[in-house]
């Protein structure tokens, strides 16, 4: 994570479902209870930056907090990604889907989720490359336009880089042909 990265800052602000495993005094303001305590087994969505810090803390060899998979990584979404990764609107789930998922998976031991996301990214990256080579930049309406609207921010960056590269190669090829 880069300190000055806007995407990293916005990813850190995403809410993550979590459960406090121990009672925590004087943190009731996190649960709209100023001055109160947080009881054990209290479910509470926290920003990712705070959940990351609390999830690695322990008190008497017991974790303070347990992270749960967010809705964007639940079995329903993973099954959709397995079935047809290109048809899932990731931007509708989370604007920073892959970035947030990678940070959450650093804290959780969910190998299957990581494998599904890796395969989904590979399939979607191939489709992104196909759209980026389109002469109009893949912005046409229809199925291609719908797919591009569902890209998360990492994928949009990949699309821009692939499209700009493709455009630069076409320009270079035109210059090479013109010099012969």
Verbal overview:
With 180 residues, this protein is mainly α. The protein contains 8 helices and 5 strands; from the N terminus they run αββαβββαααααα. The chain has helices spanning 6-12, 48-55, 75-84, 90-93, 97-107, 111-132, 143-149, 153-179, and strands at 15-20, 42-47, 58-59, 62-63, 65-67. It has a 3-stranded antiparallel β-sheet, covered by helices on one side. Strands 3-4 form a two-stranded antiparallel ribbon. A hairpin with a 2-residue loop joins strand 3 and strand 4 (62-63). Helix 6 runs parallel beside helix 8 (153-179). The longest helix has 27 residues, at 153-179. The radius of gyration is 21 Å and the shape is elongated. The model has no long low-confidence stretch (mean pLDDT 86).
Q: Gist?
A:
It contains eight helices and five strands, in the order αββαβββαααααα. The protein is mainly α and 180 residues long. The mean pLDDT is 86.
Provide keyphrases for this structure.
mainly alpha; 3-stranded antiparallel β-sheet; 8 helices; 180 residues
Q: Helix coverage percent of residues? A: 40-55%
Largest sheet: 3 strands, antiparallel
- Number of continuous helical runs: 8
| Strand portion | 5-15%
**Roughly what is the average pLDDT, rounded to an integer?**
86
* Shape field: elongated
Low-confidence stretches: none
N-to-C terminal Cα separation, in Å? 47 Å
Radius of gyration: 21 Å
What structural class do you assign from the helix and strand content? mainly alpha
* Count of beta strands: 5
State the order of secondary-structure elements, H for helix, E for strand. HEEHEEEHHHHHH
Spatial strand order of the main sheet: 2-1-5
